[in-house]
User: Fold these one by one.
Assistant:
Number 1:
Amino acid sequence: MQINDRDAASLWDMAQAIRRILEFTQNSSLEDYLNSIFMQSAVERQFEILGEAARRISLEFQQLHPEIDWSNIIGLRNVIAHRYEQVNQENLWQIIEALLPGLLVHIEGLLPPLPEEDSL
C-alpha cells in the first residue's frame, strides 16, 4: 500500500516531535529534567504535537501498523492537553528513555523517500 500525503506528513511531524524531545533531553538526567520547568514545558509541547499528528493518521494506516501504540500516543496527548494536572513527569521521562528512540527508528522506516528536487 502506498502511503497517502496526509499520513506521510503526519508521520514526518511525529518523527520531528520525537527528535526534538530527544534533543531537548540529550545529556540530561532525570534530576535535571525534574528541576527544569523549561525542559518539561518543551517536552510536553512536543508530546502534544506527537499525539496530534498520530491522531491525524488514517485508521487504515494505523490498522496496517498495529505495532505502533497509536491509542496510547494519542491518549498521552489528551492527558497533557486536558488533564495537565495529572501529568507525571517521571513517567514522561521513562517514556523518553525507554520508548521514544525505538519509536523514532520505526517511524523513520515508514516515511516515504523525499521527492527528488527536480520534481518539486
Number 2:
Amino acid sequence: MSLSCACGSVEFQAFGHPILTSVCYCDDCQKAGHQIESLPQAPSVVGHDGGTAYILYRRDRVTCLRGSERLAEHRVEGEAFTKRVVAACCNSGMYLDFEKGHWLSLYRDRFRGQAPAVEMLIQTKYKPAETVLPQDIPSFSGFPLKFIGKIMRAKFEMMFGR
C-alpha cells in the first residue's frame, strides 16, 4: 500500500499486511493533530468526531520512496516518547512514531486507494463529550488486550524473521 502527502512530494510504501487499523481519541492525538492542522495549508488530521485514524505497520515494512528530506518532526512536548512526522512541503501529517516501539502508526487518510476498514476505536474515554461512537466498530476506553496482542505478535514475527 502506498501513502503520500497532499502535494505528492513525499511518498511511502508499506509492505505486507498491517498490524491493525484503529482510531485513537487520546488527548495527545487530539492535541498534536490540531497543532498540525494549524500549520499553513495543512490537511485534516483529526476526524470530525475527535478521533485520529491510523494504520499500524511494522517499522521494517515501511519505506520512504521519495521526499525524506522534506520530513519534519513535531512533538507535543519536548521530551515525549512520541513524535509526529509531517511532510513540510504541504504540512501533511504522515505518521506517529512511538520511538520505543517496533511499529509506525501511519495516518490512514494519507493512503491512496482503499484503506483497510477500521478494526477498533481506542482511548474513547478522551473523546469529545458530543461524539457518538458508531455501534458497528468495537470501542475501548483504553488499550484493549486485542490491540496489545497484535502489537506483541508483530514484535515476535520481527524477532523470528517472519
Number 3:
Amino acid sequence: MLADEIKAGESSNIEFKVEVPKKSEKYIKSVVAFANTAGGKIIIGVDDKSHEIVGVDPNEVFKIIDGITNTISDMCYPQIFPNIGVDTIEGKCVIVVEIYPGANRPYYIKTLGKESGTFIRVSGTSRPADDTIIKDLDFQGTNRSFDEMVCVEQKYDAEQAEKLCAAIKKYMVDAAKTKAEKEKVRDVTVQNLINWGVIKNLEGTLVPTNAFVMLTNNPFPFVKIQCALFKGVERVVFIDKRDFEGPLYEQIEEAYKFVLKHINLGAEINGLVRTDSYELPTEAIREAIVNATTHRNFLDRACVQVAVYDDRVEITSPGMLCGGLTIEQIKEGGSKIRNRCIAEVFSRMRIIESWGTGVKRMFSSCREYGIKEPELKEIGDSFRVNLYRPSYSEVHQSSPKSSPKSSPMKLNATQQKIVNMIADNSKITQTVMAERLGITARAVKKNIKELAEMNVLERVGTARSGYWNLKM
C-alpha cells in the first residue's frame, strides 16, 4: 500500500522528504495544511524529485520520531496529534507522519500567528491561506455556517417571509407524486422558518439571517450564477451570457434552463410515440448546479459559474471541499454540509433529496445514458464538475440549438491565457501570471485593463484578500 503511494508520487495528501528539514517550518507548514484540509502523510526517506527510496538511519529512527512529535507539539496551534510509524520498503526504513483532518480549525504555526501561519493543501503544495479561507476555517472549527449568521445590514421583511413560505409550499406540492400527497402538504409558516434557522427570534424581535436574505430579495452582488455559452472548447469566443440573480432557488432554475437551451435535444420514435431526450441526463445537470449553489463558500466573493462548451458543461463553485471531505468520499456518498439553513430549506423543497445521494445519482444517470462519467476536481479555491457531451465525441463539433444572443467576443492569445488562469484560480496574482506567461508585469496589467474594458473581468476587494471575477 505505502509502496504504491510512493510510486504514484506527491499529491494533495502525500508529501516526500529525503530527511527531516533542519528548518522545521519547511515541513510543519504541511502538517498544519493537512490538518486544515483532508489530512495526509509526510513520508521521510523518499526523494521528492526522483521518488527514490533513500531511507533513514535505522539506529536514529526513534530519535527522529521523538523530534518530530515534539516539534509538532511545540510549533502548532491548536495541538495536532500525529500518527507516526515506521515502514520498511526495499530493505530501507521510512518514517510516515500521518496527519488527520482536524476538528478545531484553523491550525497554524504559533510563531507566525493565525494570519500568516495558516496553510492549506492545494494541488500537491502547501500554501498560505488568505483571509477568506481563514474565516471559513474559523466557521468550520466552531461548527458555524455563514448562512445561519444574522444579516446585520438587513431588516426583517414580513412580506418577503410570506413569499418565501409560499414558494417553499409550492415546491413541496409540485414534488408530491399523488393527489393525496399534494393535499397533505401543510402551509409553511414563519415559525417553520425560525425552527429551520432561517429567521432568528431575539428577545421577541425577528431578525433575518444571511440564508433568509439569499432566499428572498438577495442584495449580495456575489450571490448569483453566471452562465455562458462558448464557441469551441475554450473560453475564447462568447456566444451567449447571462447573470441570474434573485432568490437562490430561482437562480438554480434559470441556470438549469440555460443549459438545456444550449445542449442538443433529440427524439426517438417508437411506433406512434415520440420521446424527446437531451444529450445529457437532466438529473445530472440539475444536481451539479444544485450542489454548486448549496455547498459553495459564501465567504468567497466569487460567483457560481456555469459554462457550456462544445464538448462539455462545466459547473464551478467557489470554495474548497468542506470539512476535510475528499473527492473519493463524495463519490461514495460522503457529505458535509457547509450551509445548514439553505440545505434544510432545499431539502424541504425537494431540491435536495437525502444527504450524500446526489453525486451518486449524477454518476448513475450518466452510466445509464451510456456516456462518460462526470469529472470532479478541485481547482485552486474552487470545486468543478465537468459533464462531457456525447455529441462532441461523435462529430467533434456541436451546434447550439438557439441563435446567438450576443456578438462573439475575441480575445488575443495572452488575454485568453489570463482568462484561463483566473478561471482556475480567482485569486491568482499578476506577478504569478507574468511568471507563467513569460512576460512583464506591465504587459499583464495592460491586458487585464483591456479585459476589464471589454467587461470580461473585474477586480473585487483588496490586493491581499481580493479576487478576480470573470463576468462571462
